[in-house]
Automatic annotation (TrEMBL):
PANTHER family: HYDROLASE, PUTATIVE (AFU_ORTHOLOGUE AFUA_2G14860)-RELATED (PTHR43798:SF33), MONOACYLGLYCEROL LIPASE (PTHR43798). The lineage of its organism: Bacteria, Pseudomonadati, Pseudomonadota, Alphaproteobacteria, Rhodobacterales. One of its GO terms (molecular function) is hydrolase activity. It comes from the Bacteria. Pfam families: Abhydrolase_1. Residues 14-133 form the AB hydrolase-1 domain. The keyword Glycoprotein does not apply. This is Alpha/beta fold hydrolase. Keywords: Hydrolase.
Amino acid sequence: MSALLSHRRAGSGPVLVLVHGYLGGATQWQAEIARYSAHYDVIAPDLPGFGAASDHPGCDRIDGFAEAVIGLLDRLGIDRFTLLGHSMGGMIAQEMAARHAARVQRLVLYGTGPLGAMPDRFEPIDVSRQRLADDGVAQTAQRIGATWFLKGEDAPGYPTICQIGAQASLQAASAALDAMAHWDGRPALALLTMPTLVVWGDSDRSYRWLQVESLWRNLPTGELAVIPGAAHAAHLEKPALFHAILDGFLAEPSETRDIG
């Protein structure tokens, strides 16, 4: 049996799974783990090749990441859970929810969209791939991480993002770009019938409004929360507002709604 995927876990109660994105890691969720472990069993995996799982081979398809996270939850004995995915992690969360809909009680899609190619991204994925090959992982994490914040390198959360991103293996960082470039979640959106919240910072340079709107409007039970004055890492830029939005969604009745 392969080694258990590294993860952070705290608390007890209903399960809340937090999935990071490209050049992220479980440690980016420190504030969320501390907050929600009071009422939830919070599990934050490191995706294969990233964070403390940098010794695992990276995945070159989003469904590979999805099955890696499901495999971890299976080995932990977790059946049903609320799922939150950020950025590439939002693509993974969509894939997980489409493939294992009966297991996902609620879904939060944060700073993400339905198409991995990310039209109007701050730079095309092919450019990111070439610059990663030229500059290496650590410098790429610094460069891309600056785009996640309105204040760029001056943002308080920037050093944390750079430190986490630098842990990724070069193989995983390159493979994940291929995974995103080849992924299209639009055909599966109709399968995401669980209560779903889309969260977006209004200055996000990775996913622009047209992609976020497309995601929200094509979900059967989608709600939308826009965080003003925040970019791609809204949970680090506006943590109080991010938590208030998440608190409200988690506290809502469980029946599905169609408000799109």
